[in-house]
Amino acid sequence: MGRRCVVLCALGCLHFSLQRSWVSPREHAAVGYYTAALRGAATAVHGSESSGFKRLALLHYEAVELRRARKFAESSAVYRAAIALQETLPPTKEVPTFAAAACSWLNLALTEQKTSTCLDAARSAFQEGTRYVQGLIHKELDVWIDGHHQVRSRAPVLESHNLRVARRWLATLLVAWGLLETKRGFRARAQVLAARAAVLDESKAKVLGWKVVQG
């Protein structure tokens, strides 16, 4: 089955499931899984989630089920469907758009690592996802990340919950990307990515001491 067919099928099934007024056990499980996957960025309350949040939750839940079944190509296609859906959805009340996007891109890149022995697709997903998330952070928070991964703004940068979430998610993408680079044999590149992640989120500084990064 082609990637486009998988995406259309996933979105079609999703539309049907959301027509019901009652919450199925699957929807409940999907929201719980997706909320946890967002790593503290979401403020969902079971039973009062927006339709957009539930749609993304169901797609992520389907994708992780496919990944657990080792159907990696199909899983990647569903994550791409989630990314495409986010581009058309209005912002959800439960989670900042940049955090939702980062979660989708991270899981896509991790899944792409399993699709073949070639890791170029995974690297491209990390690269594209990081660029995309930085664009959303700039749009939503009116800040940008400079070449040294310092947060910049035209006005004094005021720390906020959303900015902390943005820092953590961007740092998470960079660390995961760096670990991929160690698999590709580019340890120096991994060290640079880990160092940049540590600038954004000091809790990531420990990664610099990991043997897989240091060599």
TrEMBL record:
<protein>
    <submittedName>
        <fullName>Uncharacterized protein</fullName>
    </submittedName>
</protein>
<keyword id="KW-0732">Signal</keyword>
<feature type="signal peptide">
    <location>
        <begin position="1"/>
        <end position="19"/>
    </location>
</feature>
